[in-house]
Amino acid sequence: MKVQNEFDTKNLQKMDRQKAPRFLTLLCILSFIGGGLSIRSDVKHLFYDSDIDTDEVAFNLNIEGEGDMQSFIQRASENVIDFWIEKQNQPKILTISTMLLALISIVGALLMYRLNKMGFLVYTLSNLMIILISYIYYFNNTVGQMLIAFQFFFTAMFIFMYATQLKYMMAKITE
């Protein structure tokens, strides 16, 4: 048992001195940027009180075109307006929870940058929770559905790319 602990300690010291591969570093930097922008947006939303005058928006929405194309653009524009109004009126707890999950996601990316496999689990779970919250709250709107699909695609892509980098990480448990 003592020999095993010595081996683990030597491996941990060796891994601490290793640098993250370039691709993993790039993924982490992109995750830091994305998480930071998400937190910035949520903080702005928490302290920005927006009163949208829907009548004024609908009045200024002058769409030119013919027949089906005009009605399609009109419906799409109305969906965007409805989504924006719904987003502005979302409960503060929803904003706070997505902000905290984005922060946890950044912590997961930082752990992976330090070659800790636990970061992959933290990153994956926090991002899947963000998608779940978005799905529950925004699924009834067409624009919300498109944004959820976009968010799911990029999250799945990042999780897959991080999974390819797991071979460079170790399961580190700090005491």
Provide a descriptive summary of the structure in words.
It is a single chain. The chain has 175 residues and is an all-alpha fold. The protein has one domain (31-168). It is 78% helix and 0% strand. The chain has helices at residues 2-17, 22-47, 54-60, 67-88, 92-113, 118-138, 142-163. The longest helix is centred in the first third of the chain and has 26 residues, at 22-47. The radius of gyration is 22 Å and the shape is elongated.
Task: Give a brief description.
The chain is mostly helical and 175 residues long. The protein contains seven helices and no strands. It has one domain (31-168).
Q: What are the secondary-structure elements, in order, as H or E?
A: HHHHHHH
Distance between the termini: 17 Å
Which structural class matches the secondary elements? mainly alpha
Biggest β-sheet, characterized?
A: none
Strand content: under 5%
Number of domains: 1
Q: Using DSSP, what is the number of strands?
A: 0
> What percent of the residues sit in helical stretches (DSSP H or I)?
over 70%
Radius of gyration based on Cα positions = 22 Å
Averaged pLDDT:
78
Number of helices: 7
Q: Uncertain segments of ≥5 residues (pLDDT<50)?
A: none
What overall geometry do the principal axes of the alpha carbons give?
elongated
